[in-house]
């Protein structure tokens, strides 16, 4: 269970000043530029319920990548609370935060962030190595996950010798290694070519549901969001414009912006939203 | 016809408007000229009369400073030749020489005449008369040469004027293409690139010309007033500052003497260890171990190289000395690496620290080693520890720089991913950053080893034994063969060390 309460994230030399001005709606684009300030996340409330796959969708620069980094405190919110389960992660000390990151949250990145000089197996076992789990145990666990993500037998390969899609599978296996309850997916499939992307989307949707992970999934791609998500949040300029089931967004878009986004899915009746899962 | 198939009116395109805005005065000419250049025809055709007439001043006015300076220098040469020609050719010096000879000949003749009066038959008189005759002859020749030179003065003058004309013609040819390039930059950058004619630029260029050309011309024709001829140095300031630095160094070395003692002790300990291993141990043992290491670490080819190298050192009698050298400079290299890698890591993580450290490293590498030998000797005395400290100073910069570079080049996304899985700072450093930076660090280590070995001669100047001594001795007695052999021995040591260390990284 992930809960965000009135979360703000402002990049600025003096974030608090920008924040109080923004709270009173007392700041325009020009002033922001003058202060070299960016309001990346603007008063967001969001809850991902246990076992749910929630997609945050939006164009680049809308703050979605910042949002996901607030969940495991790779970035600290300027204001507001982030709760994992019942605990406010803003109150954790360094050791507790590390434990949370290594045991309870798995993350997959667009630019995979694998370590080039390590083998595939060692990369997958990285979260376990950080937890100081004995070598044999973590290697066995890594092999099990490689099996599961369709990389069986590739454990001894060097990560840089794999294709982009394979590398992203390694990233996924790594995120699952510590068996965390929460998965954070930061545009994991965006850099892949369409065929591989669809294959991975389907596989991931299945895997995530089988394992019952609570997942926050970031994407700029409506098709991807509608394909895998239980619920979709559409983000624009740091705000969540609409949050709901894919069908709700199609049937009752909150405004023109949402309507334009879901345009391909509300066209002619003879083209039913086939591509939508469920 | 243009490639598109229709003739466009040059003066109405968007480009032409931009050219007009850019060029200010003479825009009609530049629209046409830039068009020709853009079409790829006629660099010569775009001869710029204004630039040819005004020379450097035109470049100042157009603020093409990058071209202004070389043109000013070339033109200055032409002006100098002209001034030499105007002041009578190169004969000024030969005239002076002839005058000197004339005075000498006169006094010799007077001496000869005096001697003839005293004793016309003596050998002394004869030799004086001969000398006087020779001097007179030489004087006549010198005057003749001066005459010839002054008759060629107009040739020099012509050469100078011709040179100036050629320079100006060249300037006229390159001016417009250069301005066209500036125009393209201006279109790209907008107003941050200078445009139009600048009065200030023209004034600055004129002032520079007015300062530089006449003074040089006067200087070369020998009419420069003495105040401008010699640089206004104040010798007192020099000696005062040097004396102050002497005092400061003395106080400093007294202050840190205890710390210096500890350092000397530590270095001597490390050195003793290395010397015992390399120099005191019987040679077959050392040689076997080095060869085995070369094979193990770096493979067969480096092993072969090492065999040849060690054979050279052993057969030509350099073995003991080279082991001493390697022990000494190896200690220095180890200290450099041991201090340099942590410092480099710190610099890689902290930009501000890196900004502070970089000038210090530049200083250590650029300052001639002889200069910092002086304070090192003052602090640590003459001997091996001083040699090692001076070597560390010189050898540490590459490993610091390349370690910092390697660390700061670690991809941020890899670091972020590791952090997201709960990595501690130590884990990030040892499992992520250092392995990724390793190739860069190893390059730094190799550079440091080579730099340390290159200090061998300088270290031996202050009493460090080894191959450097041989080179020094060869230098003193101009013994080329010995010098070459000893130099080659140093090279051989460096190459073997470097290949073995790098061999590890290459695998």
From TrEMBL, chain A:
<dbReference type="GO" id="GO:0016887">
    <property type="term" value="F:ATP hydrolysis activity"/>
</dbReference>
<dbReference type="InterPro" id="IPR051921">
    <property type="entry name" value="ABC_osmolyte_uptake_ATP-bind"/>
</dbReference>
<dbReference type="GO" id="GO:0015697">
    <property type="term" value="P:quaternary ammonium group transport"/>
</dbReference>
<dbReference type="InterPro" id="IPR003439">
    <property type="entry name" value="ABC_transporter-like_ATP-bd"/>
</dbReference>
<dbReference type="GO" id="GO:0005524">
    <property type="term" value="F:ATP binding"/>
</dbReference>
<feature type="domain" description="ABC transporter">
    <location>
        <begin position="22"/>
        <end position="262"/>
    </location>
</feature>
<keyword id="KW-0547">Nucleotide-binding</keyword>
<dbReference type="InterPro" id="IPR003593">
    <property type="entry name" value="AAA+_ATPase"/>
</dbReference>
<dbReference type="InterPro" id="IPR027417">
    <property type="entry name" value="P-loop_NTPase"/>
</dbReference>
<protein>
    <submittedName>
        <fullName>Glycine betaine/proline transport system ATP-binding protein</fullName>
    </submittedName>
</protein>
<dbReference type="InterPro" id="IPR017871">
    <property type="entry name" value="ABC_transporter-like_CS"/>
</dbReference>
<keyword id="KW-0067">ATP-binding</keyword>
<keyword id="KW-0813">Transport</keyword>
<dbReference type="Pfam" id="PF00005">
    <property type="entry name" value="ABC_tran"/>
</dbReference>
Automatic annotation (TrEMBL), chain B:
<keyword id="KW-0812">Transmembrane</keyword>
<feature type="transmembrane region" description="Helical">
    <location>
        <begin position="156"/>
        <end position="179"/>
    </location>
</feature>
<keyword id="KW-1133">Transmembrane helix</keyword>
<dbReference type="GO" id="GO:0043190">
    <property type="term" value="C:ATP-binding cassette (ABC) transporter complex"/>
</dbReference>
<dbReference type="GO" id="GO:0015226">
    <property type="term" value="F:carnitine transmembrane transporter activity"/>
</dbReference>
<dbReference type="InterPro" id="IPR035906">
    <property type="entry name" value="MetI-like_sf"/>
</dbReference>
<keyword id="KW-0472">Membrane</keyword>
<protein>
    <submittedName>
        <fullName>Glycine betaine/proline transport system permease protein</fullName>
    </submittedName>
</protein>
<dbReference type="GO" id="GO:0031460">
    <property type="term" value="P:glycine betaine transport"/>
</dbReference>
<feature type="transmembrane region" description="Helical">
    <location>
        <begin position="370"/>
        <end position="397"/>
    </location>
</feature>
<feature type="transmembrane region" description="Helical">
    <location>
        <begin position="199"/>
        <end position="220"/>
    </location>
</feature>
<keyword id="KW-1003">Cell membrane</keyword>
<dbReference type="InterPro" id="IPR000515">
    <property type="entry name" value="MetI-like"/>
</dbReference>
<feature type="transmembrane region" description="Helical">
    <location>
        <begin position="64"/>
        <end position="86"/>
    </location>
</feature>
<feature type="transmembrane region" description="Helical">
    <location>
        <begin position="483"/>
        <end position="501"/>
    </location>
</feature>
<dbReference type="Pfam" id="PF00528">
    <property type="entry name" value="BPD_transp_1"/>
</dbReference>
<dbReference type="GO" id="GO:0005275">
    <property type="term" value="F:amine transmembrane transporter activity"/>
</dbReference>
<feature type="transmembrane region" description="Helical">
    <location>
        <begin position="271"/>
        <end position="295"/>
    </location>
</feature>
<comment type="similarity">
    <text>Belongs to the binding-protein-dependent transport system permease family.</text>
</comment>
<dbReference type="GO" id="GO:0015871">
    <property type="term" value="P:choline transport"/>
</dbReference>
<keyword id="KW-0813">Transport</keyword>
<feature type="domain" description="ABC transmembrane type-1">
    <location>
        <begin position="322"/>
        <end position="501"/>
    </location>
</feature>
């Amino acid at each position: 269970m992930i809960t965000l309460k009135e979360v703000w994230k402002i990049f600025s030399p003096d974030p608090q000043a920008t924040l109080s001005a923004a709270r009173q709606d007392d700041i325009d684009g020009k002033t922001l530029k003058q202060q070299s300030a960016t309001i990346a996340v603007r008063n967001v409330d969001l809850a991902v319920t246990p076992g749910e796959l929630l997609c945050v969708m939006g164009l680049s620069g809308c703050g979605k990548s910042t949002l996901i980094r607030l969940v495991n405190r790779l970035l600290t919110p300027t204001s507001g609370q982030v709760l994992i389960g019942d605990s406010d992660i803003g109150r954790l000390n360094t050791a507790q935060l590390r434990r949370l990151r290594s045991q309870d949250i798995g993350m997959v990145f667009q630019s995979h962030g694998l370590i080039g000089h390590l083998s595939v197996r060692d990369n997958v076992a990285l979260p376990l190595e950080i937890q100081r789990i004995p070598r044999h145990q973590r290697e066995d666990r890594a092999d099990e996950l490689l099996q599961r993500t369709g990389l069986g037998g590739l454990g001894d390969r060097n990560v840089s010798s794999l294709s982009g899609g394979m590398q992203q599978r390694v990233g996924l296996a790594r995120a699952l290694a510590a068996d965390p309850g929460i998965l954070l997916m930061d545009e994991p499939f965006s850099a892949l070519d369409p065929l591989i992307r669809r294959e991975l989307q389907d596989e991931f949707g299945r895997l995530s549901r089988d394992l019952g992970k609570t997942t926050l999934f970031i994407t700029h791609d409506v098709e991807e969001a509608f394909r895998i998500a239980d619920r979709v949040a559409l983000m624009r300029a740091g705000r969540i414009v609409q949050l709901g089931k894919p069908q709700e967004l199609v049937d009752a878009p909150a405004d023109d912006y949402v309507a334009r986004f879901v345009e391909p899915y509300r066209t002619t009746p003879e083209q039913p939203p086939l591509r939508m899962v469920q | 016809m243009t490639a598109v198939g229709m003739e466009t009116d040059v003066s109405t395109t968007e480009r032409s408007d931009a050219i007009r805005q850019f060029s200010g005065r003479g825009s009609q000419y530049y629209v046409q000229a830039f068009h020709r250049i853009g079409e790829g025809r006629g660099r010569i055709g775009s001869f710029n009369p204004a630039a040819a007439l005004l020379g450097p001043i035109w470049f100042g006015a157009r603020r093409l400073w990058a071209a202004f300076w070389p043109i000013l220098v070339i033109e200055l040469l032409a002006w100098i030749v002209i001034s030499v020609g105007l002041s009578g050719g190169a004969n000024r010096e030969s005239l002076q020489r002839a005058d000197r000879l004339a005075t000498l000949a006169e006094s010799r003749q007077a001496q000869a005449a005096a001697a003839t009066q005293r004793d016309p038959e003596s050998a002394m008189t004869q030799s004086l008369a001969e000398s006087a005759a020779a001097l007179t002859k030489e004087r006549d020749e010198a005057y003749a040469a001066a005459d010839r030179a002054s008759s060629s003065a107009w040739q020099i003058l012509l050469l100078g004027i011709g040179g100036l004309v050629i320079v100006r013609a060249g300037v006229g040819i390159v001016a417009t293409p250069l301005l066209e390039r500036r125009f393209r930059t201006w279109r790209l950058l907008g107003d941050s690139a200078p445009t139009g004619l600048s009065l200030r630029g023209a004034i600055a260029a004129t002032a520079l010309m007015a300062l530089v050309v006449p003074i040089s011309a006067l200087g070369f024709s020998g009419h420069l007033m003495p105040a401008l001829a010699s640089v206004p140095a104040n010798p007192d300031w020099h000696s005062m500052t040097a004396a102050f630095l002497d005092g400061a160094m003395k106080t400093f070395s007294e202050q840190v003497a205890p710390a210096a003692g500890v350092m000397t002790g530590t270095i001597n300990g490390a050195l003793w260890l290395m010397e015992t291993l390399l120099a005191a141990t019987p040679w077959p043992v050392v040689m076997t171990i080095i060869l085995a290491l070369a094979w193990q670490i770096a493979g067969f080819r480096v092993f072969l190289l090492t065999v040849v190298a060690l054979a050279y050192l052993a057969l030509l009698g350099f073995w003991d000395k080279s082991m001493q050298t390697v022990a000494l400079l190896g200690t220095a290299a180890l200290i450099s690496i041991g201090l340099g890698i942590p410092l480099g890591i710190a610099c890689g993580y902290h930009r501000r620290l890196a900004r502070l450290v970089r000038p210090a490293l530049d200083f250590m590498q650029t300052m001639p080693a002889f200069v910092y030998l002086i304070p090192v000797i003052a602090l640590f005395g003459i001997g091996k520890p001083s040699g090692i400290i001076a070597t560390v100073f010189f050898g540490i910069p590459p490993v610091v720089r390349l370690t910092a570079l390697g660390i700061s080049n670690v991809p941020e996304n890899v670091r972020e991913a590791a952090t997201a899985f709960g990595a501690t700072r130590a884990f990030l450093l040892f499992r992520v950053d250092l392995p990724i930076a390793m190739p860069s660090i190893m390059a730094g280590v190799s550079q440091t080893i080579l730099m340390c070995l290159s200090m061998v001669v300088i270290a031996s100047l202050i009493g460090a034994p080894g191959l450097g001594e041989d080179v020094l001795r060869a230098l003193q007695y101009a013994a080329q063969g010995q010098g070459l052999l000893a130099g080659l021995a140093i090279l051989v040591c460096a190459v073997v060390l470097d290949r073995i260390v790098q061999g590890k990284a290459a695998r």
